[in-house]
Design a protein that fits this description.
By secondary structure, the chain is an all-alpha fold. It has helices at about 1-10, 15-35, 35-50, 50-155.
Length: about 160
């Protein structure tokens, strides 16, 4: 019959709740009357309760954990500083390379611009010479043509 009752309690949640409500009102009265039951309950509670020794062990564990965390924090801090230094050195190296390349390009294009300026100056000189030669050859020719035309007009 007891097994049947247990099986019924396991299968029926509503029956289980009602049984628990009734049983919780009756149990304290039963427990308080029987000294052996009270002693057994107290022993079970004491067995589960934390002792001063347990608390000290937990405190030691917490302290060790705290020390470990502090050690890891210091290691991490050192690692961050090391990485920062490496990064700073790398940035500095890249900056120097960039400045070097910019200077090389500047020299290259400055030289190229100077060459172009020299060529333009030569072209200007040649053009000026060309204009002078044009004038030098064409002025006498034009003077002769104008003279001939004037002679034809005024002396027919």
């Amino acid at each position: 019959m007891g097994w049947k009752l247990l099986k019924e309690l396991q299968q029926n949640p509503k029956l289980r709740r009602e049984f628990a409500e009734i049983f919780t009102h009756e149990i304290p009265a039963i427990l308080l009357q029987d000294k052996r039951v009270r002693v057994a309950i107290l022993r079970a509670i004491v067995r589960e309760a934390a002792t001063k020794e347990d608390i000290e062990k937990v405190g030691e564990t917490i302290e060790k954990t705290r020390e470990h965390v502090e050690k890891v924090r210091q290691e991490l801090k050192q690692e961050i500083l090391r990485v920062r230094q490496e990064l700073s050195q790398e940035i500095s190296k890249i900056r120097q390379e960039l400045v070097k390349e910019i200077k090389a390009l500047d020299e290259k294009y400055t030289h190229r611009i100077e060459e172009l300026n020299q060529r333009v100056a030569k072209l200007e000189g040649q053009f000026s010479l060309f204009v002078k030669l044009f004038i030098a050859f064409n002025v006498p020719l034009l003077t002769a043509v104008i003279g001939i035309l004037l002679k034809m007009i005024f002396m027919p």
